[in-house]
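Researcher: Let's try something more involved. This one mixes different molecule types, so please make sure each is placed in the same coordinate frame as the others.
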Amino acid sequence: MSKAVDVTGLTRAFGDFVAVDHVTFDVEEGEIFGFLGPNGAGKTTTIKMLTGLLAPSSGEGHVVGHDIRTESEFIKQRIGYMSQLFSLYGDLTVDENIAFFAGLYEVSGERLEQRREWVLQMSGLTAHRKRMTGELPLGWKQRLALGCAVLHEPPILFLDEPTSGVDPVSRRNFWDLIYTLADRGTTIFVSTHYMEEAEYCHRLALMNRGRLIALDRPATLRSAMAEPILELATDDGPAAAQALQGAPGIIEAAMFGRAVHVVVDDAARATHALPALLKSRGLAVHGITPVRPSLEDVFVSLVRREGGAVIS
Amino acid sequence: MALSAQRLWAIARKEAIQLRRDLRSLGMAFVVPAFMIVFFGYVISFDVKDIRIAVFDQDRTQRSRELVQAFSASGRFQVAERLERYGDIEPMLDAGAVRLALVIPPGFQRDLGTGRTATVQAAVDGADANTASIALNYAQAIVSAYSAGVLLRATPRASPVVAQARVWYNETLSSSNMIVPGLVAMIMMIISAMLTALTVAREWERGTMEQLAATPVHPTEVIIGKLLPYLAIGLIDVSVAVFIGMFVFGVPFRGNPLLLVGMATLFLFGTLGLGVFISATIKSQLLATQIAMMATYLPSLLLSGLMFDVASMPWVLRIISNAVPAKYFIVVLRGLFLKGVGFSVLWVQGVAMVIFAFVGVSLAIRAFRKEIA
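Model: All components are placed in one shared frame. Result:
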């Protein structure tokens, strides 16, 4: 299979600050490729270099076979891009925005009619096509922006944190659209800082401080996590998490929903020791269960193994 | 990469729709120029009429009354005060109650009768030098005409030499004939640079630039596409200004209207390009507007020859003035309005307009290209 994206040693510095530091990876055609990391990890900078908006300081890369340093204009014709912030024209109607981007991508005639209908249907805006885009709820705007980005049916779509600030239901709907596109063969390159969204991706690249710290399928990343995790049910979660910080055999204890996730060095020993330890602080334990690590656990663990801190 | 008419048209259409919905820009595009031309047209006037004067007639004879009558009949002066003492002149001028005081000494009629030269005195308020010198010129003219009349009555024969002056192009020497065509240029310059100053900065402020930059659109398509709706507005403004000039101020239009459209189009490409260049460089709507205002208003007002004669300025300013586009467009406008001259005379200005249009648009495209990268 040929690669939709391949990147070697890609680096971008802004003065002394290295935003993206020798990143190497590739993306298969038809894949949903996720870029996960906290704000400032270098996700947006990488996407800007891949979409021809920013020149790399060093390293090389190809998107759909074109060199990102010299052929950015060809790349722009063959990609869809949706930026972090809403970037359609708020003072144009839904129809006018579609017509504008169709013009820029040179989609016309019968194909334009078909694509327009497709976008309106896909985004559920057929009944609102004459409304000003600025008046629409954010979730609808995002769907329209996605539609405008794929008017010309690009083989690859870049989404830079497409769902930031959108409510969970709209986020779920948005991902249904992404799956629809992926099913039709579009390669999806998406960045996010929502862990739950990362689970939807075929493969995930974890980024922190400009560096790629892991790259694999979500399930593989989780199973590769070395330390076991115990979920602790207790009356006072925050107090328990506090009490366990720095205790022997405990690597990390943090709230996870209403329970406490405790990363330990030895599951059996900890299961035995924990109730007594907490009882001495006056905290009752209702149950201890070993759990599958979440991507968040994996991320934190990887960063810790590297001896660095998570920036967020 | 080849330019695409479809992409260019998409930009132009989008810009036109946005403009149509933006009341502030529409007001600036259509109301402000018309308002400015009417306002400036009335305010900037070098014609001096009804200058208030005080008369201190110490002679009180038939001849002295004739002279005073000649002043008030001229239409230039209005006798506002009659004084009884010489000492009253100064307070009058100080208070600004009159601009000029005419003093006729005793013995005026007697001197005229005996063939001696009679003297009258005019004291003028020189605080406003411009008006003062104009008032003095009028007074001199009235006095010489009166004196010629006296000579004729004494020895009835034709005057030895008569200069028959005829003013061409601006026969009534009306200052609105001189000012209004120039105003059209100045207003176009200011308005078009200010209108477009918003257009690129707005894309940056609203975050739409990133999306635009990620499409295959070429900077040339963006710039030309953005200019087209403003060009249409600019040409409408020029027509409105010409009509106001003709029908409100009675300035004649003797030239070829098509030549005006052609020259105005080139001029507008230059000023609009300049506005886009400022906008793309500054990236903030407010600052871009202010800089556009400074970069267009002052040079157009001071160095274009609109109000002040460039030829009598120090050589440094004369050289700088050659880079002020309004200077050439004013020559074109005065030529077309008043002289009715054609391309054979105005081709130098035409070349200047082509250069200006090219420079303005190229600057805009260059500034835009840098940012996409």
